[in-house]
Design a protein that fits this description.
The chain has one domain: Histidine kinase-like ATPase, C-terminal domain (Heat Shock Protein 90). 24% of the residues lie in helices and 34% in strands. It has 2 helices and 4 strands. The longest helix has 13 residues. It is globular, with a radius of gyration of 14 Å. It starts with a helix and ends with a strand. This is GHKL domain-containing protein. It comes from Hymenobacter volaticus.
Length: 93
């Protein structure tokens, strides 16, 4: 359930007409028990203005869940540009 909001956001807020890819998702489990997940989606901020701070209720709730389930054992970074939105999640299982 931690990954679902990130996947949903990629399609909900992404540019579904982007070619050749709408979104790029990468999931990896390292031998040391780290879970790495990244989502990159393309966006068209000309049609929808960029929020002042990236993230809404979904990301806020995700941050809370991570703090409860993996305190001090996770990192979540969000980066936005005029054409791309990228989220990287790392969890030490």
């Amino acid at each position: 359930m931690l990954l679902l909001p990130l996947v949903e956001n990629a399609f909900k807020h992404g540019d579904l007409a982007a070619r050749p890819l709408v979104a790029r998702l990468h999931l990896q489990l390292e031998p040391d028990g780290r879970l790495l997940f990244s989502v990159l989606n393309y966006c068209n901020h000309q049609s929808t203005p960029e929020p002042a701070t990236p993230g809404g209720v979904g990301l806020t709730n995700l941050r809370r869940r991570l703090e409860l389930l993996y305190p001090g054992r996770h990192s979540l970074s969000v980066a936005a540009s005029p054409t791309e939105y990228q989220v990287k999640l790392e969890v030490q299982l």
